Structures are given as C-alpha cells and as structure tokens.
Amino acid sequence: MWKAVVTAAVAFVLLFCRSSTLDNGLARTPPMGWLAWERFRCNVDCVDDPYNCISEELFMQMADRLAEDGWKELGYNYLNIDDCWMSMDRDEQGNLYANKTRFPNGIKKLADYVHSKGLKLGIYLDFGTHTCGGYPGSIKYLQKDAETIAGWGIDMLKMDGCYANVSDMSWGYPDMEMYMNKTGRPILFSCSWPAYAGGIKVDYSVLAKHCNAWRNYDDIQDSWDSVTHIIDWFGDNQDVLAPVAGPGHWNDPDMLIVGDYSLSYEESKAQMAMWAILAAPLFMSNDLRSISPEARSILMNKEVIRISQDSLGMQGRRVIKGDDKIEVWLREIEYASYGIAFLNRRTDGMPYNFTLTLQDLNFTYGKGYHLDDLFSGQPLGHFELNRNLTVSMAPNGVELIYAYPSE
Ligand code: GLA
Question: Can you tell me the distance from the alpha carbon of 12 to that of 210, in angstroms, rounded to the nearest whole number?
Fold first, then answer.
C-alpha cells in the first residue's frame, strides 16, 4: 500500500515540476559515460604519444571498451570528447572542424562509429572567444555551431565558459539551448555557467530551464584532496544545490577519477558512493584499456549505480558532520528508502567504529528498516528505529548502506 501512495505522490511532484524545467526528455536520471578531460587532458602529441593523444583512435578505442566490456549495459553510454579536438581556425564559411591530423575522418564518421556500438557521442565547445585550451570559441557562432554538431549526430554538448563575460552567460547559454532545440536533434546540454559565476551566485531555476546538467565548481584533479574539497563544497552549499537537482537537471561535481593514479581502493569506493549520493552525473575519466579489476568492480557496482540512478532524482545531503571527522550523508530514494553514506575523514591509521540509531537520522517508519551494505553485498539485518547500528570505516573510507522499510 505504502508503495502505491509513494509512487502516486512522486508522479504528482514530477508532473508539477516538469513545466518549469528543460523539457528535451533527456537525463531523467544522472547521465553516465566517459569523458576524456581529467585523464587525457590536452595531449595533442600524436607523434611521440600516439596511444594517449586526443584523436579519433583514442575515442574509437574507448567506444570499443564501453561497448564490449559491460559498461554500456550498466548505463555508461555517453562517450564524450573534451577540449582540443578542433582545428585552430574555422573554415572559410566560419564552420568548426576537427584537427585533420588527429581526426582524419572527421567527427561525423566518429559519431557514426560510436552510434554503431550503441553509444552516444558528446562534444565540447566554449561559450567565449576561445576554449580553455585556446581553440575557437562559439560566442559569435552559436547557431552555426549548434547546427554543425547536430548535423554530425552529436548527442551531448558540454559548453565551457573560458574567455567569456559571466554577464553574457545569462543570454548565451539559453540562446545555445534554443538553437540546439531548433535543429530538432535532442542534445543533452551540460552548461559550465555556474562554475564561472561563483558557484552559488546564479539563479539555478534559470539553469534548470535551459540545461540538463551544470558544472558548479572547481575542476577535479587526480587527488583525494581534490575529491574531498569538492565534497565539502557540495555539503557546505547543499541548501542551495540540493533543491535544484532533479530528473532532467543535475548538479555536476565533475568526473569520476576511479581507476586513475592517485586514489586508494577505499578512496575510490568513497568517491563512487558520494557521487551516487549526490545524484551526480557519472562520467569516468580513466583509461578503460588498462583499468584494474578493483577499479572496475567499484565503477560497475550495480547496487551503487541503482542509488545513483534512482528515479526520484533527489540529491542527497550531509546530515551529520561530527567533531570526530565522521560524516553521514543521506539520499532519499524510491519506495520510502534511503542511501546512507558514512564517510570517514580520519587519517589515524585504523578503521573507525561509529554508532547511531535510525532515529538519530530522523527515520520514522515504525516497523523499522532492512539494511544492506552495498560494497560487501551483505545484508546487515533488520533495524528497529532505536537499535544501535555500528559501522566500521577505513581511513578515507566509506560505508554505503541501502535502507528500505520492513514489511
Ligand atoms: C575547463 C573545464 C574542464 C575542461 C577544461 C578543458 O577547465 O572546467 O572540465 O573541460 O576546461 O580545457
């Protein structure tokens, strides 16, 4: 019975919210895929480093991996090009085109290849005069560039904001959305506008009308410090950020760096868990050709992905930030259930035990909840509201729990 009531209530809320947000039907759950930037940067040296340079080869190889190694089936279906794909100039008609040495067959052919693998292709433009890497910007060519990428069969656009006035973004990003709409091709629109406008000093209701996702804050780098810096910012600003996330429009804390050089196994689980709790887009930026089995198992954890992709689309919040450096984050998910992340920010060298009751988290369902540990895959049992729950977290580690009401 409670399932029916909850589903009806949710349907009502979703219907009510629809009219004021971008309605291109895309990103009803946080988009997932692979994005080149964090791992492959602006490496254009295909002479000395052909295996790792930004080229059609690299994207075709990643497309093969996404399609053949089980990623696509789990939802990782966008393959996204970032900066440094273009030629340094536009052609005589003002059209953008890809660097001819590194993309000899052009982007349309690459899109055809990616589509033939059952994947979608994303691309990168910049709203300003130049991209962050110094390639041609779109400010005077919004309509032309929208038509160009639609003609190529592009499925997602990340529009960056280097070399632009923030004050111009309030017309520029909406214009780009309008021009993409006019092409008739549904293109998932990721806007970097808030990241350039100070993160919380933008009107997110306007963002949600024009963009499917938006980068709010600093670029992620390959370090645990960078991951926690971003998590802290999302926690500190959650009263602004959490209410604006929902089906079709998401805050984006930037890429997953699981599988790269710096994160330990525990830290990798922590990033994955936190991105799921935050309802974040899940774009891996790693080398899928050589990823370790450990990193793969974290990124492929179906239960964690299920939390990420929950249909209510509610962004989780930090509900406890203790002096003991333990944080508890909570995300409401469908069927009156929750994802709970216990995040250990301690570095004192041994696992730390933390005890609370579900009552402490303001859970109210009288019959109590069943809890499952999502990384070990183990059920933790039935918990009355006042039963003590003790979790053990490694340094920089996480415990991610799924809590659902007992029948
Ligand atoms: C900015 C963006 C990054 C990446 C680079 C490319 O820094 O925030 O995500 O796209 O530009 O130059």
Answer: 22
- Look at residues 300, 297, 347 and name the one whose alpha carbon lies nearest to residue 326: 347
Q: Tell me how far the alpha carbon of residue 177 lies from the centroid of ligand 1, in angstroms.
A: 20
Atom of ligand 1 nearest to the CA of 195: 8
**Residue 301 CA: distances (Å) to CA of 280, 284, 308, 399:** 16, 14, 11, 14
Model pLDDT for residues 159-195, shown as the tens digit of each residue: 999 999 999 999 999 999 999 999 999 999 999 999 9
Could you read off the pLDDT of 316-365 as tens digits, one per residue?
999 999 999 999 999 999 999 999 999 999 999 999 999 999 999 999 99
Q: How far is the CA of 193 from the centre of ligand 1 (A)?
A: 12
Residue 267 parent element (H or E): helix 265-277
Question: Is there an atom of ligand 1 within 6 Å of 133 CB?
Answer: yes
- Name the catalytic one among 64, 218, 219, 232: 219
User: Which residues have CB under 8 Å from 269's CB, separation 6+?
Assistant: 298, 375, 397, 398, 400
Residue found under tokens 């300003």: 128
- CB of 177 within 6 A of ligand 1: the answer is no
Q: What is the largest CA-CA distance in the chain?
A: 72
Best probe residue, ligand 1, of 131, 163, 192, 219 (max atoms within 8 Å of C-beta): 219
Instruction: Supply the pTM of this predicted model.
Output: 0.95
Rg of the chain (C-alpha set): 21
Residues of the chain with pLDDT under 50: 1-2, 5-7, 10-19
- Cα distances (angstroms) measured from residue 87 to each of 84, 166, 246, 278: 8, 26, 36, 36
